[in-house]
UniProtKB/TrEMBL annotation, chains A, B:
One of its GO terms (molecular function) is lyase activity. The keyword Lyase applies. The keyword Flavoprotein does not apply. Pfam families: CbiX. Coiled coil: none annotated. It comes from the Bacteria. The lineage of its organism: Bacteria, Pseudomonadati, Pseudomonadota, Gammaproteobacteria, Cellvibrionales. Keywords: Lyase, Metal-binding. CDD domains: CbiX_SirB_N. Transmembrane segments: none annotated. This is CbiX protein. SUPFAM superfamilies: Chelatase. PANTHER family: SIROHYDROCHLORIN FERROCHELATASE, CHLOROPLASTIC (PTHR33542).
Length: 118, 118
């Protein structure tokens, strides 16, 4: 499950919905179900996203924080909400993956993006 | 120049500083100078970051928005600040690269991050 912050700007939330759909197609071999959940400000919130995964048959869920920096949302808020979700779904293994900005691969993305302009 | 939002949380800003330093080492062939600039809330702000690039001899600057979603900051605020910078440095070609979240490579990063947990 991709977890994004959520925005008051609908277009920004729509991007996450589209991204999730595309991601689901690209990683169907590793992940049979891919949904999204927002931390705040937008539907679907994280607990509802987890429930969607469970309803679709997930028995183990990887939560992927769609964040670049390890701010309070990554360090505290998402883990706290996920702990609440674990209490609601004690039979489901829910793990939290490193946030996007922690990935070594982000450097390739940065260089590729910048290089399109030179 | 990597442009990040800036945070009240010092650790988050420090991450951008470290990331920029590492990025500079990784793309030294394509970019002779790599600095950072924050949109708000933290030193160094974008105009000061641009000035640092110019002081270090840059004659063309690629601005890379370190943002995942194309919100108001990416669509309006950064372009507005960059336009002000262009007026201050009329002899420097300043272009804005696509924000990180717009990169096709982001999917590989997402799948790799999620896969570390399964």
């Amino acid at each position: 499950m991709l977890v994004a912050h959520g925005s008051r700007r609908k277009e920004s939330n729509d991007e996450v919905v589209v991204l999730t759909s595309k991601l689901g197609g690209l990683c169907a071999e590793q992940f049979s179900v891919v949904h999204y959940g927002f931390l705040e400000l937008a539907d679907t919130l994280i607990p509802a996203g987890i429930s969607r995964c469970v309803d679709d048959g997930a028995t183990a869920i990887t939560v992927l924080p769609y964040f670049l920096n390890s701010g309070r949302h990554v360090v505290e808020d998402i883990p706290n909400v996920i702990n609440e979700c674990r209490a609601l779904h004690p039979d489901i293994a829910i793990t939290i993956a490193p946030h996007v900005g922690a990935s070594q691969g982000i450097f390739d993305v940065l260089i590729a993006s910048a290089s399109t302009q030179i």
